[in-house]
């Protein structure tokens, strides 16, 4: 029997766990636990190690699926997957959620983080939730991967549908498994929706998604973002300012610190206008002894976050990105 391996990567909520459960059923292994961070506002559980499943096609092919956790704080498992468990994978499948505000950012982030694996295996992109929001379209994704110089097929699919997931996997292994090997499974498959489960295994209806219209490259931060980021572990304060440095809302009691972050915000347009660099999306000012200042830059807005020195800048950045993607 010929063995094949597929690695599924992508952000939290893109459908990695659901897709593997859809294909493998009771044979699937999941390490989902109750979400204790911003993820809990979107879904009840999150993968902390990996998801594993398998599928057999007759007596000829055996396929193993490895789902990587979406959050950067579990990136140690990314290394385990790409250098050990699935170092010999046949294809990397990047799953993206079409209802996030900026799927392009997810696309760029995960292609960069898993660049070595993608170079070895090639890339297939599967986009979920297109039934909830039709844009970005496939044409958008094609343009984005063209900009990155990446070769990849892109498909809209439903992670709850066995036929839909089988079709995606078939595309991933089209050069290794003949199409007639898939026919019996595709004919037998029935589109049975899978309900989300709590950590104790109790089926639960998925939450109703509140989805904004697709705004293209622009993200608008609401005043409530300051209260939201204050729930992140290690965050000591936050300020939202416009690009002229005017403070819009703040959790700080230090006018001088607010003024300093506002000054940084006002400097950003001048910096972009006078340098050859690509537009900055974030700036980190780190003290070896005190707290760090993390500045996140959107069009016409700047979010400044004060975090203690033990807080990982990359983990904080991804949690803030998730808040911006889901609000």
Concise summary:
By secondary structure, the chain is α/β, with parallel strands linked by helices.
Tell me what the structure shows.
The chain has 327 residues and is α/β, with parallel strands linked by helices. The longest helix is centred in the last third of the chain and has 20 residues. The strands form four sheets. The protein has a six-stranded mixed sheet, with helices on both faces. Strands 12-11-15-14-13 form a five-stranded antiparallel sheet. A two-stranded antiparallel sheet has the order 2-3. It is elongated, with a radius of gyration of 21 Å. The N and C termini lie far apart (47 Å). Helix content is 32%, strand content 24%. About 4% of the residues have low confidence. The protein has two domains: 203 residues, Rossmann fold (3-Layer(aba) Sandwich); 102 residues, Dynein light chain 2a, cytoplasmic (Beta-Lactamase), CATH 3.30.450.30.
Helix run count: 10
Overall form = elongated
CATH architecture of the largest domain: 3-Layer(aba) Sandwich
Provide the CATH topology of the largest domain.
Rossmann fold
Measured distance between first and last alpha carbons: 47 Å
The count of DSSP E runs of length 2 or more, i.e. the number of strands, is 15
Helix share, percent: 25-40%
Largest sheet: 6 strands, mixed
CATH class of the largest domain: Alpha Beta
Q: Mean pLDDT, as a whole number? A: 84
Q: For the largest beta sheet, what order do the strands appear in spatially?
A: 4-5-1-6-7-8
Looking at CATH, the homologous superfamily of the largest domain is P-loop containing nucleotide triphosphate hydrolases
The SSE order reads EHEEEEHEHHEHEHHEEHEEHEEEH
Which value, in Å, is the CA radius of gyration? 21 Å
What fraction of residues sit in β-strands? 15-25%
Oligomer: single chain
Structural class: alpha/beta
Return the domain count: 2
Give the uncertain stretches in residue-range form: 194-205
